[in-house]
Specification:
- Keywords: DNA replication, DNA-binding, DNA-directed RNA polymerase, Magnesium, Metal-binding, Nucleotidyltransferase, Primosome, Transcription, Transferase, Zinc, Zinc-finger.
- By secondary structure, the chain is of the alpha+beta class.
- It has 4 domains: about 1-100, DNA Primase, Chain A (Alpha-Beta Complex), CATH 3.90.580; about 115-250, DNA primase DNAg catalytic core, N-terminal domain (Alpha-Beta Complex), CATH 3.90.980.10; about 255-385, Dna Topoisomerase Vi A Subunit, Chain: A, domain 2 (3-Layer(aba) Sandwich); about 395-475.
- Helix content is about 50%, strand content about 15%.
- It has a 6-stranded mixed sheet.
- The radius of gyration is 29 Å and the shape is globular.
- The termini are far apart.
Length: about 500
């Protein structure tokens, strides 16, 4: 059996799902397959760039083999490799595809999902995206919002090809235009409500989005699972951005906009660039940075980080790089601190890329071109350095009081760095950025605070330690000033000379 939070998947169910899932159909969503002999299909490897097909599928035997990389296995292995999911998740995905009801054992009570529900919701979202896209591209559309949506993207420097690649659409002004369209296509209201496309109004079912520019949000496999919507008119009293609500498909803590396009480059480059908006993702891709993704309707969090780790094939050596792009304002600094306080096993390979003059990536591209966007990413600095310098930058370090106040803020942050070597090194660098006379004193104080970190309260001890450092710094400043004055007296010309 395979363990899951909702229970265990019996071996008999695993075997039945494996046998009933057509591997050629699953693989065919990723690889263009052609006949390759008796009970054999072939195509270009999805794991490696190649010109001659070396990837083979044996439908009757239910397995694949890639001669270019040596990878092989059953349909579960293929999904695990392509989507970086766990074995139980691969089993569940296949079960959903074929409408198989898994008989979980040993778990607590769970809400059963009817077989085929997931595929119906995906189909509804796909049909909605096609509808929204048609509303966007129809130049004969008399709804003024359609032209306004096109202009918004055009004014940001996105050409028609890029907009089409991202599938941007428009939600029309009518209250139930999409809902009626999808009902005519055979979906029922409960499905549309479950997909987050429709809701019940005072007089019946209505659309969730109206008069808004839309971006389809896809899972890593490329299925549309929700939408991000930007308002276009000032009389729209709802928020500037809206997202599909939480559904069976759309879990905002587990979704990254652009991941379906970026996943291959993320794996190849061992790098992911985290931006804050849909147009920022588009701007980076347009500029040739194909590893850009964004959280949807929530802050970038731990589950997003774990997803990216899997796609980067990250291991215990933490080769992958997470590059955050934060605005230079207070909100951006808070976002940096949230990221810093996350999983620090990875933070040692986390960086920050900041555009000049506090611009976001989309504005930077409009103002200075694609090369400036690429340069912004290339000029990234380590997360630790960004956070510490940001804290210090909030104080007037030209005076001892400012340096002491900055030290009070910096010491606990430095002490929170889990890697001993990194902690000591950044303590030394912080001493330099603070113009602290003796870096060794700062290192010692940070080490002491790190040892106390597990105790209930280290406030008084920390204040005492920083105060002691302050007194030493003041003494050294006075000594330095006295020495400078003495040297000045020795070299000052006598007023009577001459």
């Amino acid at each position: 059996m395979v363990g899951m939070a909702r229970g265990r998947i019996p071996d008999s169910d695993i075997a039945a799902i494996r046998e009933r899932t057509p591997i050629e159909e699953v693989v065919g969503e990723y690889v263009q397959l052609t006949p390759g002999g008796v009970d054999s299909l072939k195509g270009l490897s999805p794991f490696k760039d190649e010109k001659t097909p070396s990837f083979h599928v044996r439908p009757n035997k239910g397995y694949f083999h890639c001669f270019a990389t040596g990878e092989g296995g059953d349909v579960f292995s293929f999904l695990m490799k392509m989507e970086h999911v766990t074995f139980p998740e691969a089993v569940e995905e296949c079960a959903e595809r074929i409408g198989y009801q898994i008989n979980y054992t040993g778990g607590g009570p769970v809400n059963r999902v009817e077989p085929g529900t997931r595929q119906r919701l995906i189909a509804a979202n796909r049909a909605a995206q096609e509808f929204y896209r048609a509303q966007f591209t129809d130049t004969g559309n008399t709804d003024p919002g359609a032209e306004k949506a096109r202009d918004l993207l055009r004014d940001r420097g996105f050409d028609d090809d890029l907009v089409a690649e991202f599938g941007c659409g428009y939600a029309p002004a009518g209250w139930d235009t999409l809902t009626k369209h999808l009902l005519r296509k055979g979906f029922d209201f409960k499905e549309l409500e479950a997909a987050g496309l429709s809701r019940m109004g005072n007089r019946g079912p209505i659309d969730r989005f109206h008069r808004r520019l839309l971006w389809p949000i896809r899972n890593s496999a490329g299925d549309v699972i929700g939408f991000g919507a930007r308002k276009l008119f000032d009389d729209d009293k709802l928020g500037k951005y809206m997202n599909t609500p939480e559904t069976l498909l759309y879990k905002k803590s587990k979704v990254l906009f652009g991941l379906d396009r970026a996943k291959k480059s993320i794996g190849a480059d061992h790098q992911a660039v985290i931006v804050e908006g849909y147009t920022d993702v588009m701007a980076l891709h347009a500029a040739g940075v194909h590893t850009a993704v964004a959280a949807c309707g929530t802050a970038f969090g731990e589950e997003h980080l774990q997803m990216l780790r899997r796609f980067m094939l990250d291991d215990q050596f933490f080769r992958g790089e997470i590059i955050y792009t934060f605005d230079g304002d207070e909100a951006g600094q808070k976002a940096a601190m949230r990221a810093f306080e996350g999983d620090q096993k990875f933070t040692g390979r986390s960086y920050v890329a900041v555009a000049p003059d506090g611009m976001d990536p989309c504005d930077l591209r409009m103002d200075r071109g694609d090369a400036a966007v690429r340069e912004m990413v290339a000029d990234r600095i380590p997360m630790f350095e960004f956070v510490i310098r940001t804290i210090i930058g909030g104080y007037d370090t030209h005076h001892i009081d400012g340096r002491v106040d900055a030290m009070r803020r910096v010491v606990p942050v430095l002490a929170g760095i889990r890697d001993d070597a990194l902690r000591d090194e950044y303590a030394r660098q912080a001493a330099g950025w603070l113009s602290w006379p003796d870096p060794g004193e700062v290192v010692a104080q940070v080490r002491q605070e790190a040892r106390r970190a597990g105790r209930r309260s280290s406030g008084p001890a920390l204040k005492e330690g920083v105060a002691r450092l302050a007194r030493r710094a003041e003494e050294k400043e006075r000594e330095a000033a006295a020495a400078q004055a003495q040297q000045s007296n020795l070299t000052r010309p006598d007023p009577d000379d001459g």
